[in-house]
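Format notes (please read before filing issues)

Several people have asked whether sequences and C-alpha cells are stored in separate files. They are not. Every record keeps both together, in the order shown below: the sequence lines, then the C-alpha cell lines. Line labels are part of the format and must not be stripped during preprocessing.
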Amino acid sequence: MTATSTIEHIGVGIDTARYGHRVQFLRDDRQPAAKPLTVTENRRGYDRLRQELERLLRLHPQAEFRMHIDAAGQYAANLERFLRSLPIRLTISIGEPKRNKDYAKAFFPKRTSDDTDSQAMARFAVVERPRPTPAVADEFLLLREIAGRLHGQIKDGTRAINRLHNLLARVFPELACLASDLGAGWVLDLLDKYPTPQRIAAARLDSLKKIPYLRADKAEAIHRAAQGSVHSLSGELVESLVKQMTHEVRQCRHNQHVLEKLLAAAYRALPRSGHVQVETIPGIGPGTAAVLARQGRVHRALRHTGGAGGLLRHLPGGVQFGRGQARQSAASRHDADERQRLRPGAALSLERGQKRHRA
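Then the structure lines:
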C-alpha cells in the first residue's frame, strides 16, 4: 500500500495511565502509520498528539482516524475531552479494560507492555471498527464525580464506626449490647460527654437521661453496666482516643450529608431527558434517581423498554425484586451506595411499574 489515497482509515490505539498515555498508529493493512508516541498529561503532551494527527492528515487527507481508548479509571477523561474538541474527522470509542486486555492477549499472547496494549487498541480500531462512543455531557461527568465521592464517603463512615466499635470492645464492651447502632446521635453524645465507663458510672443518672433521644430505661441499663464493666483500657489517654473516634464518626456523617445534597443538586442540573420519569415512581427521590442515572442505566432502560418498568433489568449490582423484597447477589458489593438507596418502598413501586408496563 504505497499510494496515500488508498489509506481510508488510520487506527489510533491509546493506552491511558495517570501521568501519560501510550499511542500507536496503524494503517488499513495493519502496518505502522507513524512511530509510537508518549503523550504526557499536560498541554505539551496534548499538543504533540495534535501535531502528529495533523501531520498524518496532511499525508493522508482522505483518511479517517478511528480511535480506541483503553480507559483506565478516569484517566482518559481529559484526553477524550481534548480529542473531541479537535477540528479533525475522527471517531472515538471507549473500551472496557477487561475486554481490551483479553483482546491484546488473544493477538499478542507473549507480550505485555504499554506498547502492546496500545497496538492492540489500534488493531481493534482499524480491524473491528467498533461503534463510536457518544460524548458524555459535562453535567453527567460532574454527577459521576460526586456519586463516586459519596460512595467512598459511605465506606469511610462504615470504617470509622468499625474502628469505634473495635476500641469500645476494650473500653466499654457492654455498650455494644445496649446500643444496636454505635453511630446513633445519642451514642455519640454520650461518649463525647462520658467517654469511659468510669465517667458514666460517676455521672448522675438524671444527667444521662437528659441526653437527646436516649430513653430513660436505656440510660438506666447503661449506667448499671458501666458500674460493673469488665473493660481492660482506661485513663485520660483512652478518653481522648474515644472522643477522637466519635468526632471522626460525626465528621463522616456530616460529609455524607453534604455530598448527598451536592448529588441532588447535580441531578437537578442534568439536561432534560428520560431520567426525569424516574422520580414519578412513588418511593424514588432525587438521591436514588441520581445514583441510577450516573452511569446511564435510566436512559438505557427507558429507551429499550419505553417505560419505567424496564429499570428492573438495569438496576446496579444484580439487584432483583421478587414479592416486593430486594434480593442481592454476592457480586454486587461494589454498588453498596446504590443498593442502600433502593428502599423497600421504591422496590415495590418499581415492581408494580413493571407489571403495569407488561399489562
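For reference, the curators noted about this record: Residues 299-339 have pLDDT under 50 and may be disordered. The two ends are 59 Å apart (CA to CA).
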